[in-house]
Write a structure and sequence with these properties.
By secondary structure, the protein is of the alpha/beta class. The chain folds into 2 domains: 59 residues, N-terminal domain of TfIIb (Single Sheet), CATH 2.20.25; 177 residues, Rossmann fold (3-Layer(aba) Sandwich). The chain contains 11 helices and 11 strands. Helix 5 links the parallel strand 8 and strand 9. Helix 7 packs antiparallel against helix 8. The N and C termini lie far apart (55 Å).
Protein backbone atom coordinates (compact mmCIF):
# COMPACT_ATOMS: atom_id res chain seq x y z
CA UNK A 1 0.00 0.00 0.00
CA UNK A 2 1.40 3.41 -0.96
CA UNK A 3 2.00 6.06 1.71
CA UNK A 4 -0.90 8.18 0.38
CA UNK A 5 -3.37 5.27 0.43
CA UNK A 6 -2.17 4.23 3.86
CA UNK A 7 -2.72 7.79 5.08
CA UNK A 8 -6.40 7.72 4.27
CA UNK A 9 -6.92 4.28 5.76
CA UNK A 10 -5.33 5.43 9.04
CA UNK A 11 -6.42 9.07 9.37
CA UNK A 12 -8.92 10.15 12.00
CA UNK A 13 -10.60 13.52 12.32
CA UNK A 14 -8.85 15.70 14.92
CA UNK A 15 -12.20 17.36 15.59
CA UNK A 16 -14.60 14.44 16.25
CA UNK A 17 -12.15 11.46 16.12
CA UNK A 18 -14.08 9.75 13.35
CA UNK A 19 -12.11 7.78 10.74
CA UNK A 20 -14.65 8.64 8.02
CA UNK A 21 -12.45 11.03 6.05
CA UNK A 22 -12.35 11.37 2.29
CA UNK A 23 -10.80 13.62 -0.35
CA UNK A 24 -13.01 16.20 -1.98
CA UNK A 25 -13.29 15.47 -5.71
CA UNK A 26 -10.96 18.32 -6.73
CA UNK A 27 -8.32 17.02 -4.25
CA UNK A 28 -7.93 20.38 -2.53
CA UNK A 29 -9.28 19.34 0.86
CA UNK A 30 -10.30 16.44 3.07
CA UNK A 31 -13.83 16.15 4.44
CA UNK A 32 -14.91 14.38 7.60
CA UNK A 33 -18.30 12.92 6.72
CA UNK A 34 -19.19 12.58 10.42
CA UNK A 35 -18.82 16.19 11.58
CA UNK A 36 -18.41 17.94 8.19
CA UNK A 37 -15.09 19.49 9.22
CA UNK A 38 -13.02 20.30 6.14
CA UNK A 39 -9.22 20.26 6.09
CA UNK A 40 -7.14 21.81 3.30
CA UNK A 41 -4.46 20.05 1.27
CA UNK A 42 -1.62 22.50 0.73
CA UNK A 43 1.00 21.62 -1.89
CA UNK A 44 0.00 17.98 -1.54
CA UNK A 45 0.26 17.99 2.26
CA UNK A 46 -2.90 17.49 4.34
CA UNK A 47 -3.40 20.09 7.07
CA UNK A 48 -5.24 18.27 9.84
CA UNK A 49 -5.72 20.85 12.58
CA UNK A 50 -8.77 21.38 14.75
CA UNK A 51 -10.84 24.25 13.42
CA UNK A 52 -10.87 25.81 16.91
CA UNK A 53 -7.07 25.74 17.28
CA UNK A 54 -6.34 29.24 18.58
CA UNK A 55 -2.54 29.07 18.16
CA UNK A 56 -2.24 27.70 14.62
CA UNK A 57 -4.78 28.66 11.97
CA UNK A 58 -5.74 26.47 8.99
CA UNK A 59 -5.60 29.50 6.68
CA UNK A 60 -1.87 29.95 7.37
CA UNK A 61 -1.10 26.73 5.51
CA UNK A 62 -3.01 27.43 2.30
CA UNK A 63 -0.46 27.07 -0.52
CA UNK A 64 2.25 28.37 1.75
CA UNK A 65 5.60 29.13 0.13
CA UNK A 66 7.52 29.57 3.38
CA UNK A 67 11.09 28.28 2.90
CA UNK A 68 12.23 25.29 4.92
CA UNK A 69 13.33 26.27 8.42
CA UNK A 70 16.53 25.23 10.17
CA UNK A 71 18.42 24.64 6.93
CA UNK A 72 21.13 22.19 7.93
CA UNK A 73 22.91 22.64 4.61
CA UNK A 74 23.42 26.38 4.88
CA UNK A 75 26.97 27.71 4.62
CA UNK A 76 26.99 29.19 8.13
CA UNK A 77 25.61 25.97 9.60
CA UNK A 78 28.57 24.11 8.13
CA UNK A 79 31.32 26.42 9.37
CA UNK A 80 29.92 27.47 12.78
CA UNK A 81 30.04 24.60 15.30
CA UNK A 82 26.83 23.65 17.06
CA UNK A 83 26.79 24.04 20.86
CA UNK A 84 25.84 20.42 21.51
CA UNK A 85 27.03 16.85 21.03
CA UNK A 86 24.79 13.81 20.54
CA UNK A 87 26.04 10.83 22.52
CA UNK A 88 23.44 8.23 21.58
CA UNK A 89 21.07 8.82 18.67
CA UNK A 90 23.06 7.20 15.85
CA UNK A 91 23.62 4.04 17.87
CA UNK A 92 20.00 3.87 19.06
CA UNK A 93 18.62 4.52 15.57
CA UNK A 94 20.73 1.60 14.30
CA UNK A 95 19.07 -0.56 16.95
CA UNK A 96 15.62 0.70 15.99
CA UNK A 97 16.31 0.02 12.32
CA UNK A 98 17.35 -3.58 13.05
CA UNK A 99 14.15 -4.14 15.02
CA UNK A 100 11.96 -2.53 12.33
CA UNK A 101 13.54 -4.61 9.57
CA UNK A 102 12.26 -7.72 11.33
CA UNK A 103 8.66 -6.46 11.03
CA UNK A 104 6.51 -6.75 7.90
CA UNK A 105 6.26 -3.22 6.43
CA UNK A 106 6.87 -1.26 9.63
CA UNK A 107 5.47 2.27 9.90
CA UNK A 108 7.19 5.09 11.82
CA UNK A 109 5.69 8.43 12.84
CA UNK A 110 8.01 11.39 13.35
CA UNK A 111 6.49 14.10 15.54
CA UNK A 112 8.12 17.46 14.86
CA UNK A 113 9.92 16.32 11.72
CA UNK A 114 11.24 19.78 10.84
CA UNK A 115 13.96 19.23 8.25
CA UNK A 116 15.12 15.83 9.50
CA UNK A 117 13.81 13.79 6.57
CA UNK A 118 17.11 13.06 4.82
CA UNK A 119 18.96 12.43 8.08
CA UNK A 120 16.32 10.09 9.50
CA UNK A 121 15.63 8.32 6.20
CA UNK A 122 19.29 7.30 6.11
CA UNK A 123 19.42 6.10 9.72
CA UNK A 124 16.07 4.35 9.85
CA UNK A 125 16.33 2.87 6.36
CA UNK A 126 13.25 4.36 4.73
CA UNK A 127 12.13 1.96 1.99
CA UNK A 128 9.11 0.04 0.76
CA UNK A 129 9.49 -2.07 3.92
CA UNK A 130 9.91 0.80 6.42
CA UNK A 131 7.44 3.65 5.88
CA UNK A 132 8.30 6.91 7.66
CA UNK A 133 5.58 9.53 8.09
CA UNK A 134 6.87 13.04 8.85
CA UNK A 135 4.62 15.50 10.67
CA UNK A 136 5.03 18.96 12.15
CA UNK A 137 3.09 22.10 13.00
CA UNK A 138 5.73 24.40 11.45
CA UNK A 139 4.53 25.70 8.10
CA UNK A 140 8.12 25.65 6.85
CA UNK A 141 8.80 22.00 7.73
CA UNK A 142 9.60 19.26 5.20
CA UNK A 143 6.79 16.86 6.12
CA UNK A 144 4.06 14.61 4.77
CA UNK A 145 1.32 16.32 6.74
CA UNK A 146 0.80 19.21 9.12
CA UNK A 147 -0.83 18.43 12.46
CA UNK A 148 -0.86 19.41 16.12
CA UNK A 149 0.69 16.87 18.49
CA UNK A 150 -2.13 17.58 20.96
CA UNK A 151 -4.54 15.97 18.45
CA UNK A 152 -2.59 13.48 16.33
CA UNK A 153 -4.87 12.68 13.34
CA UNK A 154 -4.32 8.92 13.24
CA UNK A 155 -6.35 6.02 14.60
CA UNK A 156 -5.29 4.10 17.69
CA UNK A 157 -2.44 1.58 17.60
CA UNK A 158 -1.34 2.19 14.00
CA UNK A 159 2.42 2.87 14.26
CA UNK A 160 5.26 0.45 14.94
CA UNK A 161 7.50 3.26 16.16
CA UNK A 162 7.33 6.95 17.06
CA UNK A 163 10.30 9.34 17.04
CA UNK A 164 10.22 12.73 18.72
CA UNK A 165 13.40 14.76 19.23
CA UNK A 166 13.42 18.06 21.14
CA UNK A 167 9.71 18.67 20.56
CA UNK A 168 7.75 18.34 23.80
CA UNK A 169 9.41 21.36 25.39
CA UNK A 170 7.67 23.42 22.69
CA UNK A 171 4.08 22.25 23.25
CA UNK A 172 1.55 23.78 25.62
CA UNK A 173 0.50 20.51 27.25
CA UNK A 174 3.32 17.92 27.10
CA UNK A 175 1.37 15.22 28.98
CA UNK A 176 -1.45 15.44 26.46
CA UNK A 177 0.97 15.12 23.54
CA UNK A 178 2.73 12.21 25.24
CA UNK A 179 -0.66 10.55 25.74
CA UNK A 180 -1.45 11.03 22.04
CA UNK A 181 1.90 9.50 21.07
CA UNK A 182 1.18 6.47 23.24
CA UNK A 183 -2.33 6.18 21.76
CA UNK A 184 -1.16 5.89 18.15
CA UNK A 185 1.70 3.54 19.04
CA UNK A 186 1.01 -0.21 18.91
CA UNK A 187 1.51 -2.26 22.06
CA UNK A 188 5.09 -3.46 21.75
CA UNK A 189 5.85 -0.54 19.42
CA UNK A 190 9.03 1.47 19.89
CA UNK A 191 9.43 5.02 21.17
CA UNK A 192 12.54 7.19 20.87
CA UNK A 193 12.31 10.54 22.63
CA UNK A 194 14.82 13.32 23.30
CA UNK A 195 14.08 16.13 25.77
CA UNK A 196 16.23 19.01 27.02
CA UNK A 197 16.89 19.61 30.72
CA UNK A 198 19.71 22.15 31.28
CA UNK A 199 19.15 24.31 28.22
CA UNK A 200 18.16 27.92 27.71
CA UNK A 201 15.24 29.15 25.61
CA UNK A 202 15.77 28.22 21.95
CA UNK A 203 12.37 28.74 20.30
CA UNK A 204 11.40 32.11 21.70
CA UNK A 205 7.76 32.29 22.72
CA UNK A 206 7.26 28.63 21.73
CA UNK A 207 9.48 27.26 24.47
CA UNK A 208 7.68 26.15 27.63
CA UNK A 209 9.09 23.19 29.56
CA UNK A 210 12.20 21.27 30.68
CA UNK A 211 12.50 17.71 32.06
CA UNK A 212 14.90 15.76 34.23
CA UNK A 213 15.50 12.11 33.32
CA UNK A 214 12.97 11.11 35.99
CA UNK A 215 10.45 13.56 34.55
CA UNK A 216 11.10 12.17 31.09
CA UNK A 217 10.31 8.65 32.31
CA UNK A 218 7.20 9.88 34.13
CA UNK A 219 5.93 11.60 30.99
CA UNK A 220 6.04 8.29 29.13
CA UNK A 221 4.99 5.99 31.95
CA UNK A 222 3.59 3.40 29.55
CA UNK A 223 6.98 2.90 27.95
CA UNK A 224 9.05 0.00 29.21
CA UNK A 225 12.60 1.24 29.06
CA UNK A 226 15.13 -0.47 26.81
CA UNK A 227 17.75 2.16 27.54
CA UNK A 228 18.04 5.82 28.50
CA UNK A 229 20.67 8.35 29.30
CA UNK A 230 22.32 11.59 28.23
CA UNK A 231 22.18 12.91 24.72
CA UNK A 232 24.31 15.84 25.85
CA UNK A 233 25.82 16.39 29.27
CA UNK A 234 26.99 19.22 31.54
CA UNK A 235 29.74 20.31 29.14
CA UNK A 236 27.12 21.09 26.52
CA UNK A 237 25.06 22.81 29.22
CA UNK A 238 28.10 24.98 29.99
CA UNK A 239 28.44 26.02 26.33
CA UNK A 240 24.74 26.93 26.27
CA UNK A 241 25.22 28.96 29.47
CA UNK A 242 28.25 30.86 28.12
CA UNK A 243 26.43 31.60 24.89
CA UNK A 244 23.33 32.90 26.62
CA UNK A 245 25.38 34.95 29.09
CA UNK A 246 27.02 36.67 26.12
CA UNK A 247 23.66 37.08 24.39
CA UNK A 248 22.30 38.94 27.40
CA UNK A 249 24.47 41.88 26.25
CA UNK A 250 23.25 41.64 22.62
CA UNK A 251 19.67 42.93 22.22
CA UNK A 252 19.72 43.25 18.42
CA UNK A 253 19.28 40.47 15.87
CA UNK A 254 22.46 41.15 13.90
CA UNK A 255 24.65 41.40 17.00
CA UNK A 256 23.09 38.24 18.46
CA UNK A 257 24.01 36.23 15.36
CA UNK A 258 27.58 37.50 15.55
CA UNK A 259 27.73 36.80 19.29
CA UNK A 260 26.56 33.21 18.79
CA UNK A 261 29.14 32.65 16.08
CA UNK A 262 32.00 34.05 18.18
CA UNK A 263 31.04 32.10 21.32
CA UNK A 264 30.67 28.83 19.43
CA UNK A 265 34.01 29.27 17.68
CA UNK A 266 35.78 30.11 20.95
CA UNK A 267 34.06 27.73 23.35
CA UNK A 268 32.46 25.04 21.20
CA UNK A 269 35.27 22.61 22.01
CA UNK A 270 34.06 22.36 25.62
CA UNK A 271 31.09 20.20 24.58
CA UNK A 272 33.41 17.29 23.75
CA UNK A 273 34.13 16.90 27.45
CA UNK A 274 30.73 15.20 27.59
CA UNK A 275 32.40 12.12 26.09
CA UNK A 276 34.65 11.99 29.17
CA UNK A 277 31.76 12.00 31.67
CA UNK A 278 29.11 10.13 29.69
CA UNK A 279 29.22 7.16 32.11
CA UNK A 280 29.43 9.21 35.31
CA UNK A 281 26.14 9.26 37.29
CA UNK A 282 26.95 12.74 38.60
CA UNK A 283 26.88 14.08 35.02
CA UNK A 284 23.26 12.99 34.59
CA UNK A 285 22.13 15.52 37.21
CA UNK A 286 23.43 18.34 35.00
CA UNK A 287 22.62 16.85 31.59
CA UNK A 288 21.75 19.27 28.83
CA UNK A 289 19.44 16.73 27.16
CA UNK A 290 18.26 13.17 27.86
CA UNK A 291 16.86 10.34 25.75
CA UNK A 292 14.41 7.53 26.41
CA UNK A 293 14.16 4.43 24.20
CA UNK A 294 11.60 1.76 24.97
CA UNK A 295 8.47 -0.13 23.98
CA UNK A 296 4.81 0.45 24.76
CA UNK A 297 3.25 -1.86 27.33
CA UNK A 298 -0.37 -2.48 28.37
CA UNK A 299 0.05 -1.17 31.90
CA UNK A 300 1.29 2.03 33.54
CA UNK A 301 4.68 2.04 35.25
CA UNK A 302 4.16 2.99 38.94
CA UNK A 303 5.61 6.28 40.14
CA UNK A 304 7.57 4.39 42.81
CA UNK A 305 9.32 2.40 40.08
CA UNK A 306 10.19 5.60 38.23
CA UNK A 307 11.70 7.04 41.40
CA UNK A 308 13.72 3.84 41.86
CA UNK A 309 15.10 4.21 38.32
CA UNK A 310 16.80 7.53 39.16
CA UNK A 311 20.30 7.28 37.71
CA UNK A 312 22.02 10.40 39.07
CA UNK A 313 24.47 10.70 41.96
CA UNK A 314 22.36 12.33 44.67
CA UNK A 315 21.40 9.86 47.41
CA UNK A 316 18.13 11.05 48.92
CA UNK A 317 15.11 9.34 50.44
CA UNK A 318 11.89 10.77 51.90
CA UNK A 319 10.90 7.47 53.50
Amino acid sequence: MSKVKWFYSSFRCPQCHSSDLKEISDVTSILCTSCNAEYPISNGQPVLLRTDNDVFCLDDYQNSKVPLTHNANSFLHKIIPQPSVNLASQRVFSDIRERLEKMPKATVLVIGGGCQRQWLDERLGASQFIRIVYSDIDVGADVDLFCDGHDIPFVNDCFDAVVTTAVLEHVLYPERVASEIIRVLKVGGLLYSELPFMQQVHEGAYDFTRYTMSGHRRLFNRIQEIESGMIAGPATALVWAIENFALSFSPYTASRKLTKAVVRLLFGWIKYCDYLVRSNPAAMDGASCTYLFGRKIDSTIPDTKIIEQYSGAQVLSHK
